[in-house]
Design brief:
single chain; mainly alpha
């Protein structure tokens, strides 16, 4: 428990350094674009594959579960949309990206720490925390909500594809369910969650990498800590955001 409070304190102090005394905007602009490609664009394929198959499986499961003469068929499309928008495309995709993006960030910064590159930046008078972490935070907070939208669209298309290929539901009924009792606020809710989860994944992973010490084995441990801590934080904040925003 003491170690937990120590980590939280160091994390807060690191975030204070990240968001104070930033470098020139021109420096960050180049690094943000680079991080968008490294952390965002390179995650599109993984997001697409997972969302497509989950959307298809979700529609198939709903068709089996809701197989009743008293339940209209369009409820399959409605249920698939609600699951993709409210939970899967924000929370589950974030958990998956915590493994890919989080470990990448922790290992990159951890390697820089043990090879004394961060110490060299500090000697040159550069705020290493802000220089290394802030561009990653900006890139992911901007790009992850776009990945959330992309996941929603691909997942819904996966459900439509399974409806057409298997005939479990008429495509017209599926589309009708997609528009049934649609609340635009649900999209806002999903985007906010995507941005918050992006911040958590990036900053927590950067924390473990920034304070890595020892050898390459410690970098691996830092990556593991980053994935586990990010995943736990995502689940906690998923509960908090759901309570705050869906009341």
């Amino acid at each position: 428990m003491i170690k937990l409070f120590e980590d939280i304190g160091r994390y807060v102090m690191l975030m204070q350094r990240v968001f104070t005394h930033p470098e020139r905007f021109s420096v960050y602009r180049r690094r943000v674009l680079f991080e968008m490609e490294a952390l965002g664009f390179n995650s599109i394929a993984l997001t697409a594959i997972i969302s497509l198959f989950i959307g298809a499986v979700m529609a198939l499961q709903m068709a089996i579960t809701l197989e009743s003469a008293f339940i209209p068929q369009f409820m399959i499309g409605y249920s698939t949309r609600e699951v993709m928008v409210l939970e899967f495309s924000s929370t589950v995709v974030a958990l998956i990206l915590a493994g890919k993006v989080g470990s990448n960030i922790a290992s990159e910064i951890g390697t820089m720490r043990i090879t004394e590159q961060i110490d060299a930046l500090e000697i040159m008078g550069v705020n290493s925390a802000s220089y290394l972490i802030l561009p990653k935070v900006i890139a992911t907070v901007v790009f992850f909500p776009l990945l959330t939208l992309f996941s929603i669209v691909v997942g819904i298309l996966g459900g439509y594809a399974i409806a057409v290929l298997t005939g479990i539901i008429l495509p017209g009924d599926y589309v009708e369910g997609l528009f049934y009792f649609f609340e635009p606020y649900s999209i806002t809710y999903a985007l906010v969650k995507g941005a918050v989860f992006a911040f958590l994944i990036t900053t927590i992973s950067a924390y473990w990498g920034y304070y890595a010490k020892g050898n390459s084995l410690e970098v691996g441990r830092a990556s593991t800590h980053a994935v586990v801590s990010s995943s736990v934080a995502i689940m906690i904040f998923d509960l908090i955001l759901t309570q705050i925003m869906r009341v």
